[in-house]
Amino acid sequence: QVQLVESGGGLVQPGGSLRLSCATSGWIFSIYTMGWYRQTPGNERELVASVTRAGTTNYADSVKGRFTISRDNAKNTVYVQMNSLKPEDTAVYYCNTAPITQPWGQGTLVTVSS
User: Fold this and answer.
1) Predicted confidence (pLDDT) per residue in 2-28, tens digit
2) Hey, CA dihedral for 55, 60, 65, 71, is it positive or negative?
3) C-alpha distances in angstroms, 67 versus 2, 35, 57, 63, 98?
4) Three-class SS of residue 25?
């Protein structure tokens, strides 16, 4: 059974940084394109960053230049480094394949506020 476990969220001031991690298990992680998604109340989850198994990355315009996605296939883990955070980045962040193929994990809450 595939498990996706997100961590690293928290409260940060505008302009600050956070690094989120998503530890996965129960599958062959390395063959999938992985993505980070986020969701705010009343809105659908949106894909903000993805990384292919070869390491090619893609970003939503809203986070381009501020977020960096990476993966460690040996650890079955995907990361996102978030810099220059803005209040509008406040959301619950999730990882999954891109496109989505697995049940969602619990997510990790990021709150950007002074």
Assistant:
1) 999 999 999 999 999 999 999 998 888
2) negative
3) 26, 12, 11, 6, 17
4) strand
